[in-house]
Amino acid sequence: MEICSFCGGVIERGTGKTVVLKDGSILHFCSNKCEKNYLKLKRNPIKVKWTLKYKQFKGKKVTEATPKVVKEKNEKPKATGE
Ligand SMILES: [Zn+2]
Fold first, then answer.
1. Shortest CA distance to 36 belongs to which of 25, 24, 48?
2. Are strands 26-29 and 17-20 parallel, antiparallel or unpaired?
3. Angle at Cα 46 formed by Cα 17 and Cα 69, nearest 5°?
4. Superfamily per CATH, domain 2-57
5. Per-residue pLDDT, 71
6. How far is the CA of 77 from the centre of ligand 1 (A)?
7. pTM (2 decimals)?
8. Alpha carbon of 49 to ligand 1 centroid (Å)
9. Separation of 75 CA from ligand 1 center, angstroms?
10. Measured on CA atoms in the order 40, 45, 47, 49, is the torsion positive or negative?
11. Model confidence over 17-66: pLDDT tens digits?
12. How far is the centre of ligand 1, averaged over its atoms, from the C-alpha of 63 (Å)?
């Protein structure tokens, strides 16, 4: 299991994206959001509140890093009362 280079979350097997920079360093991203924040917007993960790195830096209790659960999109709406 890889760990996201930006948010610090666990990347589920078969998902995510790996980027190799010109200097040879390898970065793993769990989502497009993380990739854009790191490469394009050049944000520091410690200063972005939704990352696990921010929570760890602030000394907050972090529960186990779990991979994102993908919900099924085609859920049928529940039938309401007759
Ligand atoms: Zn991430």
1. 48
2. antiparallel
3. 45
4. Ribosomal protein L24 (2.30.170.20)
5. 65
6. 31
7. 0.69
8. 13
9. 26
10. positive
11. 999 999 999 999 999 999 999 999 999 999 999 999 898 888 877 665 55
12. 16
